[in-house]
Design goal:
Elements (H helix, E strand, L loop, with lengths): L2 H26 L5 E5 L5 E6 L5 E10 L6 E2 L4 H13 L6 E10 L2 E2 L3 H6 L6 H20 L11 H8 L3 H8 L2 E5 L4 H10 L8 H21 L4 E4 H7 L2 H8 L8 H8 L12 H8 L4 H21 L6 H22 L8 H16 L4 E2 L2 E2 L2 H13 L9 H5 L2
Parallel strand pairs: 3-5, 4-6, 5-7
Antiparallel strand pairs: 1-2, 1-8, 2-3, 9-10
Helix pairs in contact: 1-7, 2-5, 4-5, 7-8, 8-10, 12-16, 13-16, 14-15
Length: 403
């Protein structure tokens, strides 16, 4: 093996290691009823089953790692290979109610034509299909001008294959596709995922090593037995010992103040959207800016993860339910006061009252026992309740959003 071949082998090995670490990151975030697969339907897949075992949601994840983590371009081979692969396997997927596709990369997203369109693919389906067809024609024409023996364009076969799909097939994919671009270190992201579970910083390295080791041992055992690497929530939490690892590493009692560190240390991915969430619709409806909606969404997401992580350290589900019921009671007083004089058909007056109700709620601090929750944690809990939705800002929020 010459030097170039050795470098290529090293890159391939690093790619598989990166994929394993992304898999571990997703294992930590796995929810009850979910199963995580490795190199099964895709690089990684997450399936969520209903009570009868039927697949409700199926997420397919392609993991692409680059040593030179620049930007994904319009002619990035990883992008075209991924689309080609997905278009070929769609018909072979198991029965499901909903499927989505995610390209997980350590590259950034630039402002070239195709990449820009793919940031919101469901809005740009026709333009993307036109771009695909045009790119195929351009590459085919360029290949025809090459002298015999000249190496082909490495993306030519993938572009040709994608362009050969029907408009309906491509549209099906684009309606369900999203980029997940994150240039931060995967090791740091695993550490942060553990930190959200109330693991103290002094124990992060040791705990991360234990979790990685538990996965590697499980993966090795499954492969040597000829089994697929499919790990359920219970497999990971109980059989692989994740709950035990976390409990052993976690301080006692639960420290709600740690949420402040978690919130301000959170590194947002390049693309983050809560556009399909109910709370997003409620806030957008009363004129809250997109940036503030993202801020509220981050608070909600981190609050849900943090509260869930505290259950093993003594903060029970019943205490969380009591906290939420108390939050609803506090909100009800604010909502009634804000809308006491609201004329429902006077939109300007209604919006002012709705905004006032929202602002007062966000400034309210929740308490559990004698402990006052950090402000961002309180906001996250209130936004989570509006996402259910158990609370709202308009006078008529129930008829408009509680469907």
């Amino acid at each position: 093996m010459n030097h170039s071949e050795k470098v290529a082998a090293d890159k391939t090995s690093l790619g598989f290691e990166y994929q394993d670490l992304v898999y571990i990151e997703k294992l930590i975030d796995l929810k009850q009823g979910q199963t995580l697969g490795l190199e099964f339907h895709d690089d990684i897949h997450v399936q969520t089953a209903d009570g009868d075992g039927y697949i409700e949601d199926l997420l397919l994840v392609q993991v692409k790692h680059s040593l030179n983590s620049g930007n994904i371009s319009d002619r990035d081979i990883d992008l075209w290979k991924t689309f080609d692969n997905w278009l070929k396997i769609i018909l072979d997927l198991p029965p499901h109610r909903k499927v989505s596709f995610q390209l997980y990369t350590n590259k950034g997203l630039n402002d070239q034509t195709l990449v820009s369109l793919l940031k919101e693919p469901y809005k740009n389906i026709k333009q993307i299909i036109d771009f695909i067809r045009t790119t195929d024609r351009e590459i085919t024409a360029a290949e025809a001008l090459k002298k015999p023996g000249k190496a082909p364009n490495p993306i030519a076969e993938y572009v040709k294959s994608v362009s050969g799909a029907t408009d309906q097939q491509i549209a099906f994919l684009l309606e369900r596709f999203e980029f997940h671009s994150d240039r931060s270190s995967i090791i740091s992201r695993i550490s942060f995922a553990l930190q959200r579970l109330a693991i103290p910083e002094s124990r992060l390295d040791e705990t991360r090593a234990q979790v990685i080791g538990a996965f590697k041992e499980s993966k090795f055992s499954k492969i040597t037995k000829g089994e697929k690497v499919l790990i359920s929530f219970d497999d990971f939490r109980i059989k692989m010992g994740f709950n035990r690892i976390v409990i052993a590493a976690r301080p006692d009692p639960a420290d709600f103040g740690r949420f402040v560190d978690i919130y301000y240390n959170y590194q947002r991915p390049d693309s983050l959207s809560f556009s399909t969430s109910r709370f997003h619709s409620q806030l957008k409806d009363i004129g809250i800016s997109d940036d503030e909606i993202i801020e509220r969404g981050v608070e909600m997401m981190l609050a849900e993860q943090f509260i869930e992580s505290l259950k093993d350290s003594g903060f029970s589900a019943s205490e969380n339910s009591r906290l939420e019921n108390s939050a609803v009671s506090d909100w009800q007083l604010l909502h009634s006061r804000s809308h006491r004089k609201t004329i429902e058909h006077d939109e300007a007056s209604h919006l002012n009252a709705s905004m006032d109700c929202y602002d007062q709620t966000m400034y309210s601090s929740l308490k559990t026992g004698e402990i006052e929750l950090p402000k961002n944690l309180s906001c996250g809990k209130y936004i989570g309740l509006s996402n259910l939705p158990r609370i709202g800002w308009r006078k008529n929020w129930q008829s408009k959003f509680k469907k």
